[in-house]
Design brief:
By secondary structure, the chain is α/β, with parallel strands linked by helices. The protein has eleven helices and nine strands. The strands form two sheets. Strands 1-2-3-4-6-9 form a six-stranded mixed β-sheet, sandwiched between helices.
Length: 253
């Protein structure tokens, strides 16, 4: 995984950068583990006041690397979801420090659902958000079935999670998923400005206020586990098997 995930500490901010442009930053199991480690290790570091997750200019992430995901899933048939992906979701659920997301370009699957665990989201004008689980015969993950209706309302969540509709940056802002829309190529710079603003605030007051605003971690992990179990069942379903075959056939064509 050399160079596919870059973690840098800049002043009081940890910047986690997905860097796999040839695959639209599709996330492998190794990348999940590295992101989880970056989040977990920040918890006990008083020098880190907040974090930024970014994919750089032009793309956030295409979501799971499906080939890597299927290889891991089939090698562990009794595991509902790949363990490193679940570990990453748990890290987000238990994280106690503000996370800023800088989304430029596509955010697919977990690229969208991870944003509901973030505290401030910037998107470029060209950003798009999609959770096409249904098209692969699957179900939502990342506690999105809990967090998306809470953030955007049930009807928008149904259109996104069940119907698989794509959301534009402007519509995502109106829906409450995105704080501000900026010009393409400027999300990371703007995220750093927000990080400086957060880092200048009293750290303990920020932590307590954030905890009051968010659902308890155990509520999130309970839903993550529930979704994970159902996701694993769906992976073995006829619908999903046929959908994946069709997906890879189109990819080879």
């Amino acid at each position: 995984m050399p160079g596919q995930l870059i973690v840098t500490d800049e002043d009081a901010t940890r910047v986690i950068t997905l860097r796999r442009p040839e695959k639209k930053n599709a996330i492998t199991q190794d990348m999940y583990r590295a992101m989880s480690d970056a989040i977990d290790s920040a918890q006990s570091n008083p020098g880190i006041r907040c974090m930024i997750i970014t994919g750089g200019s032009g793309v956030f992430t295409a979501g799971n690397d499906l080939e890597d995901f299927l290889k891991d899933s089939t090698s562990q048939p009794d595991t509902p979801r790949a363990s490193n992906a679940i570990k990453f979701l748990y890290s987000l659920a238990h994280n106690a420090k503000p996370i800023i997301a800088a989304v430029d370009g596509v955010a697919i699957g977990i690229g969208t659902t991870m944003l509901f665990h973030c505290d401030y989201v910037l998107a470029s004008k060209t950003a798009t958000f999609a959770t096409p689980f249904i098209h692969l015969g699957l179900v939502p993950e990342g506690a999105s079935s809990l967090l998306m209706p809470r953030t955007m309302g049930y009807h928008r969540a149904f259109a996104t999670l069940v119907m698989g509709r794509t959301i534009s940056a402007d519509d995502a802002r109106v829906a409450g998923l995105v704080n501000v829309v900026v010009s393409p190529g400027h999300t990371e710079a703007e995220a750093r400005k927000v990080a400086r603003e957060i880092c200048a605030l009293p750290a303990e007051a920020v932590a307590i206020s954030r905890r009051l605003l968010r659902l308890p971690p155990e509520d999130l992990t309970r839903r993550i586990d529930q979704e994970s179990h159902l996701f694993g069942e769906r992976m073995r379903s006829t619908e999903a098997v046929e959908a994946f075959k069709a997906f890879f056939s189109r990819k080879k064509a």
